[in-house]
Amino acid sequence: MGETVIYARVSTADQDLSNQQENLHEYAVTRLDVDADDITVLRDKSTGTNTDRSGYREMMELVRSGDVDRVVVREVTRIGRNFRDIHEIVHEIVEDHNVGLSIVNDNLEIEPGDDLNMRDKMFLSMLAWGAELEAKKIKQNTIEGLRAAEEAGKWVGHPPYGFTTDDDGYLQPNENFGNALDAIEAVEELGWSDRKAARHSGVPRRTVPNVVDRKDLYLTEHADEKPD
Q: What InterPro entries is this protein classified in (predicted)?
């Protein structure tokens, strides 16, 4: 008899992966009557909507090896986040490799060796569309949040050389801010090369062009904020 694979994943740092794992383990033992010794637990804790994760890859490798009887996940989004991916992966697990699939929160149970019947296919399509709409909504909310932050004057992404960001996301000059000013002066006013400006200012040579391109950020927007 092959193993039952439990795949647990959370998408944010504040979500509890251990609780999800324990709930799936209890479900496999009590509802599916699986021996605890026959359970393999795979975990991922990462953000994003792609399935390029180590635990996920290992799950699919075990499915394709033929040593797995059943896969247990919490919800269909653990299989994929868009309509096409979910259908392809579920069909591969269930019909190509004859592996059972339990999607606990979505109440989808397919026994090992069974094909997808018409009800399963219709229900899967509904779940897949819902997952894709949810993923698009999350992406749109993220984009809108970034736009709102930019409009509020907050910096989105890694701060430029010579700055850090405070707890609210606003740029604050740091100890390298003066170096950036020296590099801008060397290139813009003295006409020095990036290499010479880097030696003079202490700014990394590859960073000098970026600093110069953003000179208004240093000379205008934060001109009065140079650290002591």
A: Recombinase_CS (IPR006118), Resolv_N (IPR006119), Resolvase-like_N_sf (IPR036162), SSR_resolvase (IPR050639)
Q: How many CB atoms lie within 10 A of CB 63?
A: 23
Sign of the torsion formed by the C-alpha atoms of 171, 172, 175 and 176: positive
Q: What is the pLDDT along the chain (228 residues), one digit of tens a residue?
A: 468 999 988 765 556 788 888 999 999 999 988 999 999 999 887 654 444 578 899 999 999 998 899 999 998 888 887 888 888 999 999 999 999 999 998 888 999 988 888 888 888 888 888 777 776 777 777 677 778 777 777 887 889 999 998 888 888 899 999 999 999 999 999 999 999 999 999 999 999 999 999 999 888 877 666 665
The domain 3-140 is classified under which CATH number: 3.40.50.620, 2.40.10.240, 1.20.1530.20, 3.40.50.1390? 3.40.50.1390
**Residues in the chain, overall count:** 228
